[in-house]
Each structure stands twice: as structure tokens, then as C-alpha cells.
Write a structure and sequence with these properties.
Rossmann fold; 6-stranded parallel sheet; binds nicotinamide-adenine-dinucleotide
Length: 438
């Protein structure tokens, strides 16, 4: 099949490349000319494990191409995906659909013959119907079916998630579109991935419901962590103790600095706004977003309180900046709040991240200093905070760390160290939800 992927970011590039790996002919399109130029040179504009190799192989096989202009690819496509960004709209938290609408107009003017247009971007319920109107207005003669096919991949494990998904959700009531989508995903159904066909509005809602539920799960365990700190319990054991119950499940029960990233913050807000306007407010999710915001702010205070010296003029080493490991994505990373609250109190921040520093420089204040490794980062610092649980931080040489720090203080916001390992070496250790362990 011929596929055009509009938007070549984390989702578009991974899904386009995986579709080409299934044997489809794919063109990934992006308005960002420098991104397309880099891809044509064989350079991958994002960090995603395994992606470089997969792109190279499929380009070499002639199944994967890149373009800044959609005309040629859309004209011959059986399926056109919209995988552009849907960020929060400034001021009201609604999903900003301007990129999606613009893409739909361009597709409408270009498509020839029966074409399935698929929203892979996360879009609020009803967007599919809006796109039908936009397309009918721009090109009344066009023979187009609009389908919802939300994406559930996780950055850092995106290829595996795309190729072996827990499920694929396809929202359409058009029989021709259903046939095309079934053929497109046939290689996955051979792998026994459940393909859930449903009505379009339902598919759009499934994506938001899934993200809101996961955000709620994280927030729940974070509150249990706070309680453990007050009454003396261990949140990791609480998580294990409840997670072994099949009705609850063990995933997404890691207490930490609050959720961030390119999806949960904006998607919970957008769901809240949709629900408020529909007259069915999601009070649970409203609370989740408020609790999470205050948690992110509290993490900076936690670091400041752990220091033995006044904040002004102190140096804090920050390990990990991206919102999670194995990605360079800094969007809404908890590190942004933490670093800012340290700087606001006059702390000097020195940071290290294995792959995220180029992106971090774009979003963090210029006064942040960047180090070449974890020990260089810790050198002479009055305390160290682990913000992102990269593997590279899980087995640090603790004796060396103690030697290079001015004060042996570690705030471990991801609970990656057994407290005893540090305390026995004379560190002051502050974790999350593991009683009073300093
Ligand atoms: P991204 O910002 O990495 O990529 C979007 C790309 O679209 C950009 O490169 C931009 O230049 C391009 N673009 C915008 N308008 C265009 C147009 N008219 N024509 C061609 N290109 C255009 O975004 P992302 O992280 O890939 O997310 C895309 C969508 O997928 C969002 O709705 C997001 O919520 C959803 N999603 C993301 C993830 C994730 O982990 N990142 C997971 C599931 C779903």
C-alpha cells in the first residue's frame, strides 16, 4: 500500500518507518525543511533507540522517502496519516488543532481517488467530524473517509511498541476505510495484536481516557509516597503489594517527581476542557492535574531542604534532564521546574544528561552549566539530585561520587538506589516515599 505520513516527529517518523518495514511504500512529509534535509542525509533528528538502523534499511530498500511537499505522495496514497503536533492552546488548555486543520485542507486539495485520511495525532472527540467538514468545504468532490487511529507508543521504546502493540484502535464506520485499515495493519494481526474497530468518536476518546488513567495511576502512587513519608512506610513495597493484584497491575506505580513529557500534561488538560464544555466534568482528572502541578513545585523545595548550606551561592548537580530515559525529549520535563526553582533561590545548577543536553539548552535558562559526565557534574557540588532514571546513573561509583562532592548529599527522585548503599558510606540520602531516611 502507499502511505503518506504528514508530520515527521516522534510519532510520524517512527510509525512511517515501521509501516515501511512492514513492506508498505511510505513517504514521510514535514514542513520543517532542515528535518527533511537531515533525514535525506541519513541523519535522525530525534533520539529513539533502534530508529537509525530501521530508517537506513528501509530507505535502502526503496520503501521509505522524505519530502517537504505532500503533493506527489498524497496524490498516489491509499492512506494519508496526520501525525502533526497538537500542543496545549495558550490560555485555555484546549488542544491546538491548527496544524491538524491546515494539514487536512492541504490533503483535501491534493488527494485523487478514494483516500483514507487518518488522524494519528491525539485529537479531541469530534475532530474527525470537523475534518470531514473542512475537507468537504475545501474540496467538495473529494472521495475521502476520515478515520481515527490514535497512537499509544512510548518514546524510548517506540519501535517495539509500534510493532508489538498491546492493541491497535481504529475508529470508522466506513466499510471501504475499514478494509484499507485492516490491510494496512495486517502484518500486525499476524502477530496477534488485537485490532479494535470502533466508532470514530469512541476511538478519539480511548486515547484521552488511556492517558488520563495512566496520569492518575502515577499521581495516586505519588500521594501514597507522601503518606509513607509522614507515617513511615515504603512506597516501593506498597506499589509491589498492590500491583501484584491483577485488577491493579504493577506498571505505572513508580513514585517520582510528578509526570511530565509531551503527552500526559497536555492530554489531561484537553480532556478536562472537553468534559467541562460537554457538561460532564472529569473531577478526578482535574484533581490529578492540580496535584501533579504542586508536586513538581515541591520537588525543588525538597532539594533545597536537603542542602546543608544556604541556597544562594550553593551548587547543585542535576543528573538527568529529559522527562524519561532513552529519549531526548524535554517537553514538560519535571527537570524544568526543578532547575528553575533552584535558580530562583540563587543556586548554581550544573547538569548532565546522556542525550538530552542539546534539547535542554533550548528550554533551560542560559545560566545552567553543562557537564561532560556524572562525576564532572558532581565535582565540588553541595548536593546532587537524580531527576531522570537513565541506566547510566544506576550503578555510579558511590565512593568516587562521595570524593568529588563537596557535601555528600543525594536526592534520589526516582528511588534508583537502596538507601542503605548511600547511608552506609556516609551520604545524606533523600528518596521518595521511603520514610525518613536521611
Ligand atoms: P512532534 O512535534 O515531534 O512532530 C510533529 C511534526 O509535525 C513536526 O516535525 C512539525 O514540523 C510537523 N508539522 C506540523 N504541521 C505540519 C504540516 N502541515 N505539514 C507537515 N508537517 C507538519 O510531535 P509528536 O511527539 O510526534 O506528536 C504528534 C502527535 O502524536 C501529537 O498529537 C501527540 O499528542 C501524539 N502522540 C505523541 C506521542 C509521543 O510519545 N510523542 C505518543 C502518542 C501520541
Amino acid at each position: 500500500m502507499r502511505v503518506a505520513m504528514i508530520g515527521t516527529g516522534y510519532v510520524g517518523l517512527v510509525s512511517g518507518t515501521c509501516f515501511s518495514d512492514f513492506g508498505h511504500e511510505v513517504t514521510c512529509i514535514d514542513k520543517d525543511a532542515s528535518k527533511i534535509e537531515r533525514l535525506k542525509q541519513g541523519e535522525i533528528p530525534i533520539f529513539e533507540p533502534g530508529l537509525e538502523d530501521l530508517v537506513r534499511r528501509n530507505v535502502a530498500a526503496g520503501r521509505l522517502q522524505f519530502d517537504t511537499d505532500l503533493t506527489q505522495a498524497v496524490r498516489s496514497a491509499d492512506v494519508v496519516f496526520i501525525a502533526v503536533g497538537t500542543p496545549s492552546r495558550r490560555g485555555d488548555g484546549h488542544a491546538d488543532l491548527s496544524y491538524v486543520h491546515a494539514a487536512a485542507r492541504e490533503i483535501a486539495r491534493t488527494a485523487e481517488g478514494f483516500t483514507v485520511v487518518v488522524t494519528k495525532s491525539t485529537v479531541p472527540v469530534g475532530t474527525g467530524s470537523d475534518l470531514e467538514h473542512i475537507i468537504a468545504e475545501a474540496a467538495p468532490e473529494a472521495d475521502i473517509a476520515v478515520v481515527s487511529n490514535p497512537e499509544f507508543l512510548r518514546e524510548g521504546a517506540a519501535i517495539e511498541d509500534f510493532k508489538r502493540p498491546d492493541r491497535v484502535v481504529i475508529g470508522t464506520d466506513d466499510p471501504r476505510a475499514r478494509e484499507v485499515m485492516a490491510a494496512l495493519y495486517r502484518p500486525l494481526s499476524l502477530n496477534a495484536a488485537p485490532i479494535l474497530f470502533t466508532e470514530r468518536n469512541t476511538a478519539e476518546l480511548i486515547k484521552y481516557a488511556a492517558n488520563a488513567f495512566l496520569a492518575m495511576k502515577i499521581t495516586f502512587i505519588n500521594e501514597m509516597a507522601d503518606l509513607c513519608e509522614k507515617v513511615g512506610g515504603n512506597v516501593q513495597e506498597v506499589a509491589r503489594g498492590i500491583g501484584l493484584d491483577g485488577r491493579i497491575g504493577s506498571k505505572f506505580l513508580h513514585a517520582g517527581p510528578g509526570y511530565g513529557g509531551s503527552c500526559f500534561p497536555k492530554d489531561t488538560l484537553a480532556l478536562m476542557r472537553t468534559a467541562q464544555e460537554a457538561g460532564a466534568p472529569t473531577r478526578l482528572i482535574e484533581t490529578v492535574t492540580t496535584v501533579n502541578e504542586s508536586r513538581k513545585a515541591a520537588m525543588g523545595r525538597r532539594v533545597l531542604e536537603a542542602l546543608d548550606v544556604p541556597p544562594r551561592g550553593a551548587t547543585v548537580a542535576v543528573l538527568g534532564l529529559t522527562f524519561k530515559p532513552n529519549t531526548d525529549d524535554m517537553r514538560d520535563s519535571p527537570a524544568i521546574n526543578i532547575v528553575q526553582s533552584l535558580l530562583d533561590r540563587g543556586v548554581k545548577v550544573r547538569a548532565f544528561d546522556p542525550v538530552g543536553m542539546a534539547e535542554a539548552r533550548k528550554v533551560l535558562p542560559d545560566s545552567v552549566e553543562y557537564a561532560s559526565g556524572p562525576y564532572e557534574c558532581a565535582e565540588g557540588a553541595d548536593g546532587l539530585v537524580i531527576v531522570t532514571e537513565w541506566d547510566a546513573f544506576r550503578a555510579l561509583d558511590l565512593d568516587r561520587l562521595k570524593q568529588v562532592l563537596r557535601s555528600p548529599i543525594v536526592v534520589d527522585l526516582r528511588n534508583i538506589y537502596p538507601p542503605g548503599d548511600l547511608i552506609s558510606r556516609g551520604f545524606k540520602y533523600v528518596g521518595i516515599g521511603r520514610g525518613h531516611l536521611t
